[in-house]
Inverse folding.
């Protein structure tokens, strides 16, 4: 029997309001973190955050303490939850989610590449989300216990790769300074 269901957005009645609200909060927080970069030259931070007598100093401090990293982490968790909800919704209706999911991730990747290379936004994250989404999809059925046990290994690899990357940058700067 051939499935003739048409692709369509999720109906209003089947959306999870809490997930949508948290996604909105995360996106507004990410906007708050990036809006100064949209509005000011690249080296705005010195004048923006070094004078405690100015409102901008305290606004920058608030954003740094209460939003920096937290909103991206919240958005990342909601992205992962969205993957699981999408896949479970497709599979519960008897359809395979793999092709449609990877097609969506490839579109996200294309938008990320356009964003990074045509619009030239240095903080582009859509490409990374698409690559991570494709990897996460492969592990969606793995026992959560194994995923939790793999977390320290991933953190160690990330720390090691970051350390090597920044040591390389430091060495290049030192060589140029001589």
């Amino acid at each position: 029997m051939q499935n003739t269901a048409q692709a369509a957005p999720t109906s209003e009645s089947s959306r999870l309001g809490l997930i949508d609200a948290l996604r909105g909060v995360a996106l507004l927080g990410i906007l708050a973190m990036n809006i100064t970069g949209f509005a000011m030259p690249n080296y705005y931070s010195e004048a923006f955050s070094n004078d405690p007598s100015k409102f901008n100093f305290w606004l920058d401090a608030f954003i740094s303490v209460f939003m920096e990293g937290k909103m991206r982490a919240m958005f990342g968790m909601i992205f992962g939850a969205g993957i699981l909800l999408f896949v479970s919704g497709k599979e519960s209706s008897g359809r395979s989610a793999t092709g449609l999911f990877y097609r969506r991730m490839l579109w996200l990747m294309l938008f990320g590449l356009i964003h990074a290379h045509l619009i030239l936004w240095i903080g582009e994250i859509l490409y990374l989300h698409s690559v991570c989404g494709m990897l996460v999809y492969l592990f969606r059925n793995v026992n959560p216990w194994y995923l939790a046990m793999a977390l320290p290994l991933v953190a160690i690899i990330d720390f090691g790769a970051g350390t090597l990357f920044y040591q390389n940058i430091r060495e290049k700067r030192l060589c140029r300074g001589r």
